[in-house]
Design goal:
The protein has about 260 residues and is of the alpha/beta class. The chain is about 30% helix and about 20% strand. It folds into two domains: about 35-165, Immunoglobulin-like (Sandwich), CATH 2.60.40; about 165-255, no CATH class. The chain contains seven helices and nine strands.
């Protein structure tokens, strides 16, 4: 066997021994900007998170809000300040005396426009977007803060997902600085998910879910933690749990 083959074989063997529980493909993929941003229903409705999601519109780029994965039909939409953005949907919206069924809208498209001067409206570059959607669990009211951004967007679609579709172990991390630390976070989140150390119905779970979304979109870990309302102590605890590999059964994540 040639020296080159020996080197390659040793590298593969060492890699398998060093990273047995960590798939490097998500890490490599995360170097590419994510084009889809997923937001849990509890975050978008404001029930499980204090701040409503923010949508920033860039020149020449639109943003889609998809309710396909949450299996909901959009019934009503209100854009409070239409002076800098236009709105369209992929189907009908409910009006007085008319109900939309399966042919109803499931995607909302927002697009930035040249600012309009409307005497009756205050001069502002932000707007509240209110969406009423109906699914199997009934009607929900979703809130979004729409603003403008001068940079090229990092995503083109926002997907509203149900809480049970959140998969912490599948999160792809960006701004990679320490692969070993990211492996520990991934393992720690998997332990939390499997063992139910935090209830899925709790506000803390939704905040962690939002933290994962922010990191997935490329935010540094400390910035994502601050914006999501969780402490770095909690993040470090997740890292610690991942480092321990779950050997300490039933140990609280809050310690």
């Amino acid at each position: 066997m040639s020296n080159q083959c020996l080197v390659i074989t040793r590298f593969i063997l060492i890699s398998c021994l060093t990273f047995p529980l960590f798939d490097l493909s998500p890490v490599i993929a995360s170097e590419i900007k994510q084009s889809v941003k997923q937001i849990p229903q509890g975050v978008a409705t404001g029930h499980n998170f204090p701040n409503i999601p923010k949508i920033e519109l860039s020149p020449g780029y639109g943003v889609n809000i998809s309710f396909i994965k949450s299996d909901e039909i959009v019934e009503k939409v209100w854009l409070d300040n239409p002076t800098f953005a236009s709105l369209d949907v992929d189907g009908c919206l409910s009006t007085e005396g008319k109900e939309c069924d399966k042919e109803g809208a499931t995607i909302i498209h927002l697009r930035r426009i040249t600012p309009l001067k409307v005497p009756q409206l205050p001069n502002s570059n932000t707007s509240l977007l209110t969406v009423v959607a109906k699914g199997k669990s009934g009607r929900k009211v979703y809130l979004f803060e729409v603003g403008i951004e001068g940079k090229t967007p990092t995503y083109h679609t926002i997907e509203i997902i149900t809480e049970n579709k959140i998969a912490p172990e599948n999160i792809q991390f960006s701004n990679i600085k320490n692969i070993n630390e990211l492996r520990q976070i991934s393992k720690g989140l998997k332990i939390v998910n499997i063992r139910g150390l935090i209830s899925r119905e709790s506000r803390l779970w939704s905040r962690i879910a939002n933290f994962l979304i922010e990191v997935r979109m490329g935010e540094p870990v400390n910035t994502a933690a601050r914006k999501s309302g969780i402490s770095m102590q909690l993040v470090n605890r997740l890292i610690e749990l991942g480092n321990l590999g779950g050997r300490e059964q039933g140990e609280s994540i809050y310690q």
